[in-house]
Each structure stands twice: as structure tokens, then as C-alpha cells.
Amino acid sequence: MNALLEVSGVSVSFDGFRAINNLTFNINAAELRAIIGPNGAGKSTFMDIVTGKTRPDKGSVTFGEKSLSLLKMTEAQIARAGIGRKFQRPTVFEDQTVAENLTLALKAARGPWRVLVWRSTAADADRIDALATEVGLSDHLARKAGDLSHGQKQWLEIAMLLAQEPRLLLVDEPAAGMTLAERERTTEMLVNIAKTRAVVVVEHDMDFVRRLNCKVTVLHEGAVLAEGSLDHVTKNQTVIDVYLGRG
Amino acid sequence: MRLIALLLAFLFSSMSAPVLAQQAAQIVAENRDQIEKPSRQTIGPVITALAESGDPMADDILAAWEAKRLVIRKADGAMFISAPDGAGFTLTALDGAAAGTATKGEIVELKPNAGVRGLISTALVQFTLSDPDPVKRQAALDSIAKDPKAEALTPLRASIAGETDATLKAQKERLERLLTLRFDPDSAARVAAIDSFGADLGLDLRGALNPILATTIVAATEPPAANIDRTLRVGRDVDPVAAYEILVAAGLAPARLTLDVQRDALIANLKDGMVGGVALADLDSRAARDRAYTALEDQGAVPFAATDDEAAAALAAYQFYEVYTETDPAVTAAAKAALDAIGTKVGVMQTADLALDGLSLASIYFLAAIGLAITFGVMGVINMAHGEFITIGAYTGYVVQLYITDYTASIIVALPLAFAITFAAGVAMERLVIRHLYKRPLETLLATFGISIALQQILKNVFGTQARPLTSPAWLDGAWVLNDVVSISYIRIAIFVLALVFLGFFLWLMKRTRLGLEVRAVTQNPTMAASMGINPDRINMLTFGLGSGIAGIAGVAIGLFAKVTSELGTDYIVQSFMTVVVGGVGNIWGTLAGATMIGGLQKVIEFFNPSNTLAAQTYMILFIILFIQVRPRGIIALRGRAAGD
Amino acid sequence: MRPLLQPRHRSMLVFLAGLAIFTIGVTIAAQFGLVSTSFVKTLGKTLCLCLAALAMDLIWGYAGILSLGHMAFFALGGYMIGMWLMYARTEEIVIASLMNSGLPATPEEVQQGIATQIFGVVGASDLPAIWGFAHSLPLQLMLVLAVPGVLALVFGWLAFRSRVTGVYLSILTQAMTLALALYLFQNDSGLRGNNGLSGLQNIPGMDAVGQETISLWFFWASALALGVVYVLLHAIVAGKFGSVIRAIRDDEARVRFLGYSVESYKLFVFTLTAVITAFAGALYYPQAGIINPAELAPIASIYLAVWVAIGGRGRLYGAVIGAAVVSLLSSWFTGGRVPSIPLGFATINWVDWWQVLLGLTFVAVTLFAPKGIGGVFDRLTGVHTPDRKGAPLGPDDGSLQEREAQQ
Questions:
Q1: Does residue C107 lie within any of the structural domains?
Q2: Which CATH class is domain B346-643?
Q3: Residue numbers in chain C where pLDDT is lower than 70
Q4: Using CA of residue A221, residue A227, residue A230, residue A231, what is the dihedral sign?
Q5: Which residues from chain B sit within 8 angstroms of residue C163, using beta carbons?
Q6: B269 touches chain C (CB under 8 A)
Q7: What ipTM is given for this predicted complex?
């Protein structure tokens, strides 16, 4: 089975600091993967590279069956190709209603002219209702997103990601700031999503990662230190040194 | 003692004068016949003898002779210099003593012919060129240089050997060569004189060489026997219309029919609504009018005039030659070569001059922009009222000069005072307005714009719309002249120095003082700085005050050479923004680079399009918009994560 | 008709009704001689300025791009229509005068006569190439939209492509205006240098119609244009497109990750608003009668932003009200009809002090009432601002402030 995303030999440095150093990473079309690593390991930079925000100095990043090179595409093109990203802090459009936020994210033509003549169909309305129900926001469709609680914003953002119907989801610390019950629900949901698409979760919280019960990639100093099940990597001596020895 | 001294002085003067006077008067007396009836062939030695006598009176005698004022008194046959005085004449003896007056009937004027007068005037030139008084010699040289004539060459040459003053001697020698290359009959001597200058930058040399290369355009069927520069191709080197006019002027072709002439002729020949067989109503096209006119020509009613075809045929029949008025090809060739060499050197010098101009403009932009760069770079605040702070600085200078009349002292007082006033204004603005709009750069821009229009109008109401004088001290007048091409005014040098001082001051402030350290800390990480006990509020206030204060000082400097009106700052504000944007934010070297680039570029564009400063600015802004494409964050940009995007 | 009665369309309906009443009222007043022709012109011009402010609100209030160059497009539109007005008018005069001179005029003579008439003042006697379309009204009308449109397209493409945002973009647009103004100030720019184009109030072929009628025609046209554009822009901002550009205003990076090409949207809005502004200018200058490069001064464009801010940005009616109130007050104050205030030691003469008042008022609005006049309507309709502890609604420079937002 071919990998959905192939990152190979990627390096990038900022003012002499090597944030990513010859990184290679693959993920399959329906796979859940957790990325862990200490601060400054290059997790955020890795996501920046995949989503097109940062251009690597060398290496290649390809996506999909046709092995599209993501390096020549803009952020918007990459997003349209099917890569969705959830930021650590919830970023929703606070001056717009929940319904508007979801409409923005809904899979549809993205060009200015097409958007100008876009009209909501019954199918669109149903889809928005369904998504809102899934994340428990169906009563809040007409409210402005800025009025939602922190957790609700996280949910809204996840719903927006789902509305995009991406093939690969990059999720940055989804459990941050959530209650225990919310975490359980999030876990369940991510596992569920990963049945049909690839999901990469960047996370600090070992308990949360354990709950995800998936393959884990450990990043350190911009490169892969270890890969495998959580139990496997936590027994790895270098990982212990990096995590515990210095921590 | 005094008596003896007086006696001695009297003795001395009365003794020396007659001795010399006798010489000039003596020469006249000895050659009396020749002087009364001079001939060009023989009078030469007499004039020379007079000129070389060394007697101060010889000058007057020769001048009077030339001006037909040398007279003989009929009563005793004595010779005098006369000067008209009312109805009669005052007479002066040839030794300089007053000799009473005479009526017109009592005297006979000597009237030398033109040839003799020419000889006398040459001698006179030589005389003044050898005058014991260096001021007079200088004046004589200047008058020759101003209006060079062939006659001046001989006396000039003659006077060189006896010249004692080194400066004057050098001047004489230079002038002699300049005259030689133009007027010497010997071709080789002229070429040698031209070559002797090499690529000299003097305007006088170019002034002497250019007339040699003056040309006229001659139309002929075969090359004329003249010093031909080149053959002109019609349509390429010479405009066909101009070429045809040359033919007309030379009488080689009939004048062309202008539309107005044709029109008037047609109207004049209008009969019964018809002209030359064409109905009046049909005459609304060129073709119809030409047809009517040709018909009139055939009738002989109008003069024959060339049509386009005839004109083209006439042009084809003739060749056009550019001919030197100077007939000697060797000389023109040498002059051309010399001018080419000079042209190259002038080009180099002009580049240097341009660089100086650009540098001076860059210092002005730097001064105007540095305050803006501080507030924008450190605080992210665009201050649209920055231009008004510059204006306030200039007006401060003006008000100070109302009370302190000594210009030097007034400038010394105005600089710190302008800083203080605009510093206070800046701090007040920061406290009252900007503090409430941090992290809202666009709102800040608009709010400061509101302040800007209010301030500008207040200044206009207080000081009026007329330009106020802000005079620079006398020692800043004038320019430092390197040669005829490169020069720079002292005031621009002063501004350059001021810009350097500010650069140094700013670097010292940021790198060597506690305030600079705190400013840098707040810029890089306000939260961290606050947790370490730095009060960001205070730092922002001081930074803004500092930026505004520097604008005030820049205002005094700019006011010294620009018109001080309430719109003074507005003229610099967009350029200042450009400087900051092009240079890159948050770095003084960036501002310097931006100012250098914008100043230099503007001067270069102005050089290529000298008539048009407006166009220069247009093209410069276009260039900046394109430049932003290549380096969106300016010349010196903070990269990576520090850029904060 | 039912969707039109939805609450989100209410402001538009109220606005259109108000505009209609205003237009009819002025027309009746003019018919009965209650208002002078020049005042009708002032009102017509004000409507055009409102139209420009609408465009400004779309780009700044909705898309968060503080353009300081839109009055350049306004003036360009004026220049384009002015070229036809001046050419056609001069052509009439030249043909009439050549008629009297003995021979019927040739086309070359007419051309030459027009060129001398128009360009004698800058010492030229040839018609520049850019006047090539000036003889034809349809072509020149096309240029009214095409020239500013293409300029905006090229400039916007360059600026947005290199991701210039925030104050940088503002300064760049300001520089563009200045460059254009300086270019037009030259005598050899082909548009009569600082003389500009004049006599634009004389509509060719309409000598028989008096200015009092023409002024009403233009007033109606301006009102109609304002109404139509208002409806158009309302449709744009109320739909998904409006949602996208507001999202760009508050957080453009997030919009990119949703797959929208932010640059295309900005370019689209920049060009659309430029064309609307140019159209407004083409209606404005025949009423003003004269246009010169001073109209492009960077300060004019900043005023446009000031109007929108005073009216309340991010709401279309706010822009219209802001532009109308400030420009009418401005002509009232600077017209010398406001009584001076004697203070004993000095007298406040409003012709001199209006600018000061305007500047300070504007600062006060920015500081204390970011919703501008629009805030009054919010208060009347019971709309509150959200309590966000001072946080703006997005990370970008142009994002809505807490006190600008509606809950």
C-alpha cells in the first residue's frame, strides 16, 4: 500500500538554526499517527512544511496517488488538495456565526467567481446540521463563534475540518484545555475519523497518546528518533534519555 | 625732523617724475612728424618705444592718441592730451601737468587711421598687461578672456616673459594657449596648443574648443571644397522638413505650400462658389484643396509652390553636408579629439557629482525618516503626523530667529529647542492617543492622520500660508568647488554631517545605554521585558518622544534650504515612509540603506531626465513598488521567526 | 419576495426607501426653486462621494485592506469621462469657428483646431496618443472602467502577490497615488498638467438644456447609481463571498488553510472597488466641472477612509452616512456660512478652524466610538458589543476591534 504523504530528506533552518534535519516521514491513507517530542523538536515546523507555510531548504514532500509535490503549491492549493490543519489554539472566525464558519469550510469551489454565485442548497444545509450535531453545536448555529466557550470553539474547528473533507488531517494538541470528558470524546472522534482518512496528531500529553492507541513517531532535534507503538518507543533508551534524562 | 622728511619726500617725487615724463614726452617730441602723420608701415617702432618706455604717462598718451584726443595747440604747436569740458577742452601736458583749457578753434586733433589705431590698441593691451599694478593686469587678462580676439595674442605673448606674479603668469600662459588654439595662423601651433591641454575640465577650454567645431549644413550636388564633418542622410541625421527649408533658404527650391497659405489663396480666388473648378462645399478635404490649388497654379493665379512629391524630388537631388566653419581639418580633428577626451572625463566627474548629490539627498531623507523608523520599527506605529513634527521644528527655527538675530547662535539655540518641543508634543500624543491604540496599526495610522490635519491647520492659522524665512549662517553659504563639474554646497555638507551625527547618536543610544537596552528588550519580547521590571509604557513613551524630537531637529535642518510653510513636512512624509519600507523595519542600517537607495535613485533618474523632477519621482515610486516584489521586507530584513509573522 | 424581508436585508430596504424619499424631495424642492442649482450639484456630488465611500467600506470595512489610493481611481474615472466631454465640446466650438472662416473644414483642420484649443495651454499643439478614443463616447465610457480597473489589477497583483499587508500596503497604495498625481502634474503627461480638464459641466450637444436641468439629471443618475451599487454590494457582503472577505479581514492565514486563495479575493475586491470608485468619479466630475491632479493628492484618499470610519466601518449604510455627513458639514463650514465664535482674545473663524475640528473629532471617534455614527443605530436597535476583555476578533491588523463588533 502506497503512503498518502511522503516526506523524505527534508531540512530547513532559520538563521543557522536547524529546525528540521533530514526528516523522513510517511503516513498511509487511513491511519492514525501521533507525533511526540520535546519542545523545539520541530513538530510545528513539520506541520508548517506540510501545509506550505514554510518552504524547506531541501528534500521532497509528496501527497496522494499521483505523488503531487507540495513544495510548489501555495497554502490554499495544498488545503484544496485535501490537507486540513487544526491549530493548537482554536482559530475560528469570531465575528461570524457558527453556520457561517461551517459554510466557509464546506467542501465546494473556492474561486472568487464561483463563491460569488454560490447559493446554499438543501444538501448543504443538511450537511451543516449534521456536522453541528456531531460536535454538539446544533443549538448554536446562529450564534457568533466569538461567543462560544473555549471547548465549543475547539469543536467548531474540528467540525470545520470535517466539513473540508480532507484526506489528511494535521491536529495540533487537540486535548489542550479540555476536560476529561471532552478528551474522551475527542479521542473517540479522532479514532473514528482515522478509519476513512489519515490523521496526524501532535501531542504532549502521554495519557492522551496512550488512549489513541496508535503508531507513534518521536521527533528530536528535527529528525525521527524512534517510531512504533507507544510501549515500544517508551522502552527505547534514547527516547528515555531525551524525555526523562533532560526533563 | 618732520620738515626734513617732507622736504625729502618733495625732492624725491619732484625728481623722479620729470625724469620718466621726459622719456615719454621725449619720444613724442623726437618722433613728432611721424606721430602727426602716421603710416601703418612705419609707426610701429614709435608705438613700441612708447609702450616700452615704462613711463606711466605713455599709457595715457597712447590711449588719447587712439581716441583722437591728442591735440596740437595752434598758438605754439605744443602737443597736449585733451578732454572735452563743456564747450571747450581741458588740456594736459604730456608730462601729466595741467595746462589750462582751450576752445575748439584753438586746437587741432590728430586723427590716426584705423590701421594705426589697431596697432595702438594692441600696444595698449600689452601696456596694461605689463602694468606695474597687478590688479590692473588681472583686469586686462579677464577682459581678454571674456572676449577673446586675435589681436590680443601678440601683446599677451609679449607680456609673459616680464610677468613677475606667479599666479598671473600661469593665467597668462593658459590664456595664451587658449588664444593660440583659436587664432594662431600656424596650424601646427594650434594643434600643439590643443594637445597641450589634454583632458582639461576648464569651462574656458570648452568655450574655446566649441567654436572651432561649429558647423553649418550645406546642400550641394557634390561635396563642397570645405572642411566637411560628415554627409547627412535625410530622414536619419536631418529632418526632411528642416532639410527642405535649407534648400529653400539657399534658393535651390521653391517654398513649400503650407496649409494656411493654401487656405488663404483658395479663399482669395473664390468666385461664384467655385475655386479652380472645385465647388466650395467640396473643399473639406486635403485632396480636394490640392486639386483646386494645382488648377489655380496652372491658371497662374497663385505662385508655384512645391507639393510633397516635388519636395521629395528636390531633396533627392541634393546631398547635405555638415561643414565646419573652421577650414583647417587638422585643427578640427584635434579639437574633436580633445573634446571627446574632455567629455569622457566630464562624464566621470559628473558621476562623482551625481554621487555627491545623491548622498546629500539621502542624508535629508535619512534625517526625515529616522524618527519615523524609530517609532515604526520599535513600536509598529505609523505616525502620519511625523511630517507636522518636521514642520514644527522648522517653525521653531524661524521663531528663534525672530528673537536671536545672530544666525549662528540662533541655529545653536533652535536645534535643542526644536528637539524639546517636538519631544514634548510626541510624548503628549503618545499618552493621549497612541497608547490606546497599540496593536491596532491601521487605526493608529488614521488617528495620527487626524492629528496631522489638525496640526497642519493650526500651524497655517498661526503662521499664515506664506513661506517664512529660516536663514542659515553666512559660513554655510557658498559651495565647496572641486572643479568646474564637481561642487557641493556647504549646507548640504552640514546636513550630511548632521545625518552622520544622528546615526552615531542612535547607535550609541541603542547599543551603549540602559535606555537602548530596555528599548531592544521591549521590542523583542514585551512580556518578558515587563516581567524583568522594565516598564514598557515608559519605554514606548520615551521612544515616541525620541522619534518625534529627531523629526524636530530634521525640521530645522530642512528649513534651512527649503521653504518653511505649513506643508513643509507633507513634502517629505511619503518619501520618509518609502525610506522606512524600502530599508526594512526595525534596523537603523536598513533606514540608512533605504535613504541611500531612494536618494541616489532619484538623482540618477533626474540625471537622465533633467527637465523633470516630477517624472523622476514618479519613476522612483514605480521602482519601489517593483522593488517590494523582490524584497517585500525591505533591503535589510529580519528573517525567520524573529520577523514575527 | 419573502427572502427580501429577512432581517439581514432590513437595513438595505430602509436605506433604499430613504434614498428614494431624499431624491424625490430634492427634485420637488428644485422644481419649486427652493434649492439652488449649485446646491443640487453639491448634493449630486455628495451622492457620488457616498458611492466611493461604499467601495471604500467594502475594501476596508469588509476585507480589512486600508487602501490609501482609491481616490486615484476616482480621479482617473473623472479624467476618462472628462476627456470625452472636453474633446466633444471643443470639437463643436472648433467646427463652428471654422465654418465662419471661408472654407469648409477638413478633418485635419478640425483635429488640429481641437488639439490647439485643448493643449495650447501647455504649449503643445498635437493630440497625444492617449486621446485616441476621446472622440467616441462609448469607447471613452469603456475606458472609465477599464483604465482604473487595469491599473488596480496590475498594482493589486504585484502588491498582494508579494503578500504586502497592513500598513505596508497602505503606504504602498499611498505611494501609487502620489506617483500618479506627480505624473499627471507634468505638462507632457498628455492631460494638460496642473491645468487639468475644465468646462466639464457643459455637456456636448446639450446647449439648449439649462444647467438647472442637467444638474437634476446628474443628481438622479448619482442617486440611481448609489442605489444600484448599494444593492449589488449588499448582495455580495450578505452572501458567502462576504463571509470569505470578512474572514480574510480577521484571520487571513486561517482562510488560506481552508483552501481559499486569499490573494485572488483581495485582488478581486481591490479591482471591483477601484472600478466602482472610478464610476463614481465619472459621475462626480461633470457636476464639479473641473478636474486637476490635485484631486489625486494622497490626502484625498485618506479622507475617504476617514468618512468610512466616522460612519462606522463594516456596514454599508455607515459608509454612506459618514461620507454624506462629513462632506456636507465640510462644505458648510468652509463655505463661510457658519457664524464665528468670538472668544474675546481671538475669534474662531470656522473657515480656518474646521480642519482642526475635523481632525480632533476624528481622533475622538477612533478612540471613543469605533463604531462611528453606526453605533447610534446599534444603540437604537438594541445591538450590543461583545464583552471580550479588549481582545480583537482576529489576529490581523485589519480585524474588527471588540468595540466595533456586534454581538
A1: yes
A2: mainly alpha
A3: 1-5
A4: negative
A5: 632
A6: no
A7: 0.90
